[in-house]
Amino acid sequence: MHQFGAVSVYLGHQSGKYPDGNQIVVRGTDRVVAFDTPLVSRTLPGVFDDVQAVLLGHVHEDHLAGLSALPPTELWVHEGDLEAARSWEGMTRHFGYAPEILREWRLRMEKEFFYQARPDAQAYAHGHVWSLGGGVRVRAHHLPGHTSGHCALLVESEGVAFIGDIDLSGFGPYYGDATSNLRQFRQSLQAVRELDARVWVTSHHRGVLTERKAFETALSAFTAKLDQRSEKLLHLLQDGPLTLAELVQRRLVYPVGFDAAFVNDAERRMIEQHLEELMQQQLVACLDPSTQLMARVA
Ligand SMILES: [Zn+2]
Q: Are residues 183 and 143 in the same domain?
């Protein structure tokens, strides 16, 4: 466990490597809040006894995993992800995968992440402040791209920034869902650098960073993945045009052979967004819109 003033950080398995995550609890003199509830939250007896509210940095199965184990607790989520928290129908629009994939994914979410819809979830917006007493303040900073409502939760009084799934992992950014957005993700990777923080906590794998230089180095490597992916797409197209379906089969982000149910849909969404960028840069062109046959521009 790491302690930074009012902030306690409980690392999940392998520093919160997916499917686990890292848990933050912030204790003011009047109120106690938790940031997300990853799987590890279910293994922390007593820690949630005085938690009155859970603030979600964004909505994805691995960040909701402890909610169903808690007593009735306020649940806050950014307005961009609100419907995904409130109902399964909202969640299906959030992911945007094919219906048969979503049916299978829901069963897995229920079994492995104890998923339940939360119709009582309430919305916050960019800039919302929770004052917890004793000068402890949390502010929401909207950093969309991973999801439309993805936020950093900044404990201003302690200089701790929970940056969620801007997770600085070797995998790189994920923007494979319907409400994900590559352009916004690029902007958020700029904005996260400007947060006034001394400690950065990611949801997965990296865990806790306490040196600005180490944070900036990790952030630069994470950001560079985006251009590396565009380069990889151009490379895939160097021997001739390929359809979007063929590009999905060849894989941009996941290794060939990694075949979770959602992977084709997530790959397609990510590849499409890179192709859009490359078309704007006039580096690729669409030869046939019906099959999305793509070619490099010589
Ligand atoms: Zn996520």
A: yes
- Identify whether residues 241 and 121 lie together within a single domain: no
* End-to-end CA separation in angstroms for the chain: 54
What one-character DSSP code corresponds to residue 40?
Answer: G
Residue 253 and residue 211 share a domain: no
Q: Spell out, as residue ranges, where the chain has pLDDT lower than 50.
A: none
Judge if 176 and 270 occupy the same domain.
no
Distance 15 CA to ligand 1 centre (A): 16
Q: How far is the CA of 165 from the centre of ligand 1 (A)?
A: 5
Q: What is the pLDDT of residue 269?
A: 97
The alpha carbon of 58 and the centre of ligand 1 are apart by a number of angstroms equal to 7
Specify whether 282 is located in the same domain as 190: no
Q: Please tell me the distance from the alpha carbon of residue 213 to that of residue 46, in angstroms, as a whole number.
A: 35
User: Of 190, 221, 252, which marks where a domain is finished?
Assistant: 221
226 inside domain: no
Report the alpha-carbon distance of residue 82 to residue 76 in Å, rounded.
8
Instruction: Give residue 60 CA to ligand 1 midpoint distance, Å.
Output: 5
Ligand 1: centre distance to CA 175 (Å): 9
**Domain shared by 131 and 255, yes or no:** no
Residue recorded with tokens 């909505």:
59
User: What distance in angstroms lies between residue 142's CA and the mean position of ligand 1's atoms?
Assistant: 14
Which residues have CB less than 5 Å away from ligand 1 (the ion)? 60, 165
For residue 180, the CA-to-ligand 1 centroid distance in Å is 10
The H or E element spanning position 182 is: helix 182-191
**100: CB partners within 8 A, 6+ apart:** none
**Å from CA of 59 to ligand 1 middle:** 7
For 131-154, write each residue's pLDDT tens digit.
Answer: 999 999 999 999 999 999 999 999
| 57 SS3 class | coil
